[in-house]
Amino acid sequence: MKLELRGITKRFPGVVANDAVDLVIEEGEIHGLLGENGAGKSTLMNILYGLYTADEGEVLIDGEPVTFAGPGDAIDAGIGMVHQHFMLVPVFTVAENITLGVEHTKGLGLLDRRSAEAEVHRLSEEFGLPVDPHAVVEDLPVGVQQRVEILKALHREARLLILDEPTAVLTPQETEDLFRAMRSLKESGRSIVFISHKLKEHKAIVDRISVLRRGRIVGTADPATTSEQELANLMVGRPVGLTVDKADRETGEAVLAVRGITVLDARGKPAVDGVDLDVHRGEIVAIAGVEGNGQTELVRAITGLDPVAGGTIELLGRDVTAFGRKELLRAGVGHIPEDRNREGIVGDFTVAENLVLPMWDAAPFAERGRRRFGAIAEVAEREVDDFDIRTPSIHTTAGSLSGGNAQKVVVAREFARPLDLLVAAQPTRGVDVGSIEYIHRRIVDKRNEGAAVVIVSSELDEVLALADRVAVMFHGRLVGPFPMPVSREAVGLLMAGATPDEAMGATR
Ligand SMILES: Nc1ncnc2c1ncn2[C@@H]1O[C@H](COP(=O)(O)OP(=O)(O)OP(=O)(O)O)[C@@H](O)[C@H]1O
Ligand SMILES: [Mg+2]
Hints:
By secondary structure, the protein is α/β, with parallel strands linked by helices. It contains 18 helices and 24 strands.
């Protein structure tokens, strides 16, 4: 299908999310959408999928104008979408999720489970998207859940597939698998709109790139002939630094001392298995690892979200093993959580309220039982400015922010208070290159000011750029930390379970 958007404009209170956007997506094309956080990418795609109605402009399919009253109409027209946040029913099986709403029925409304499952099987074979139709969705890793979303769209006969930041939550291997499936979808004549903040990915998979800035298309680029630096400059509108400046620094006392901690998963098995870790003032320890090796649980334990089953955690010599989350946050621990929607922001609260969340009932934001709105607003305005949070105002509810801007609210908040320890999990997930540059600079500043910093990231580039020492989680155990420089290859080998000798030896 050939799809054309003409003069699409969409306004929200206080912001023009899309401003007279023209865009053509050819049949059998993978079209990249690139743009800063809040540039209007998701909004434009939500219009195309019938979730939002444009204030102006039209959509044409194969030259014919179409109007969508809802996603049902878009689906009927052959458009499928995989959202930034998945929309599956967690307690249903893969097959149930895929066939939900388009169940095969035998005559009198009896569900024909068998033929639905056969169809799912056929699609998954054809496009290289392996899933177990009987598996319950909530038990599956995100990469597989995403395949389910894609299969669901294909089952509804999508000819054009919108993938909104599909790789943000994927491991490098899962990304490779997704790209392979995308190529075979393209070969079948389907079109794909691909949204990602990772410039490398646009260069690897996309045929043509359209760049959005503040709601407008500012250019198109050929990924084969445009460098990452040129792409970054085009989307941000100024030169962007893609590397981190970090001077050597003396380290100080141990801020965090973890001794032999064990954390159990929901089934009672050790997800973290006897981990020791010291982190000192003035250093960044980066923890790499393939998702699911215990790094999430390790962070949850040291930030007071989950109890430990054994071992101790000390903060500046004080035993904090039994501290709850609030106590820890007030004892000088900052946390940028991996799941910003669950632990990071409160969607119904305003941007300002979210920016002072852990301190809302303490000075200077509250005094003698009264909230001090002036103090809250002052801090909020400054943070919005410093972190370039694109929001109509500090009184806007955080739930209406774009994905990357919501992440910036969480990051800004944790930087706004004095910290001895900063624990940052996937701090730049979903964040645009300009803001990654800024967040990385602020993390290095925190370290330079004498905080101890722990970063958990599945982005090897980020790990290698920020780490003073690097460790790897594998099967619940921590290998390292090793002082930098450690090569990318060595970290990769450790992530795959090699011993330190094997990993370091192989690359010397
Ligand atoms: N439902 C909504 N209500 C109010 N404002 C909204 C809504 N959805 C989006 N916006 C605003 O529209 C603008 C564009 O947001 P959009 O989500 O399209 O950005 P994006 O390019 O997808 O960004 P990101 O890379 O962070 O995902 C932002 O300023 C956002 O705050
Ligand atoms: Mg978005």
